[in-house]
Design goal:
heterodimer, A: mainly beta, globular, B: 117 residues, four-stranded antiparallel sheet
């Protein structure tokens, strides 16, 4: 089944404790991206990647890191989480042509205390 | 940079009735793509419909259709014969055709739709 697999689904952590949210897609998509969803703000892009070893900042990259060592994986790393990073996070992927829709993972609800 | 606006934070519709969700966007590009996504309480993001800017014909998918007004930069979603399962958050999204453009996908803030039995 074609899908974007994102883990974990829920995560509660404390300020400063490094964490990684994993994302993997099996559709051979070149484009992958991370978003955070906050009430009233919609989805804001954190980082995106056009292909392996090619990543760039989105709207709200501060406090986040990503890597794209393999085409299928695009982990999101929070080196030192803070309470303002409490949010709902989505990984998404698509083919590069612009008429291609985004395929989303099921989201990760992160709470930082 | 492109922006997407959804001016209705919340809407409600009676079951079996028709509702229209509005979306406007700001761009200087002539070619682009527009999408509507549905997010039910399960929080899964589901593609509802897409529209290519170069196509004059409005896209339709079963009970879902759009009213695309390119000059007005408007992209509204019409849901006919509303069903209880249509209750969700709906996001309008813009995608630039330029692969190296930073904000490849831009989303609006969303409209929460309630369907009343």
């Amino acid at each position: 089944e074609a899908q974007v697999t994102q883990n974990p689904r829920y995560l509660i952590t404390v300020t400063g404790k490094k964490l990684t949210v994993t994302c993997s897609q099996n559709m051979n998509h070149e484009y992958m991206s991370w978003y955070r969803q906050d009430p009233g703000l919609g989805l804001r892009q954190i980082y995106y990647s056009m292909n392996v070893e090619v990543t760039d900042k989105g709207d709200v990259p501060e406090g986040y890191k990503v890597s794209r060592k393999e085409k299928r994986n695009f982990p999101l790393i929070l080196e030192s989480p803070s309470p303002n990073q409490t949010s709902l996070y989505f990984c998404a992927s698509s083919f590069v042509p612009a008429n291609s829709p985004l395929h989303f993972g099921n989201g990760t609800r992160l709470t930082v205390t | 940079a492109q922006t997407v606006t959804q001016s209705q934070p919340e809407m409600s519709v009676q079951e079996a009735e028709t509702v229209t969700l509005s979306c406007t966007y700001d761009t200087s590009e002539s070619d682009y793509y527009l999408f509507w996504y549905k997010q039910p309480p399960s929080r899964q993001m589901i593609l509802v419909i897409r529209q290519e800017a170069y196509k004059q014909q409005n896209a339709t998918e079963n009970r879902f259709s759009v009213n695309f007004q390119k000059a007005a930069k408007s992209f509204s979603l019409k849901i006919s014969d509303s069903q209880l399962g249509d209750a969700a958050m709906y996001f309008c999204a813009y995608r630039s055709p330029r692969d190296n453009y930073g904000q490849n996908f831009v989303f609006g803030p969303g409209t929460r739709l309630s369907v009343l039995p």
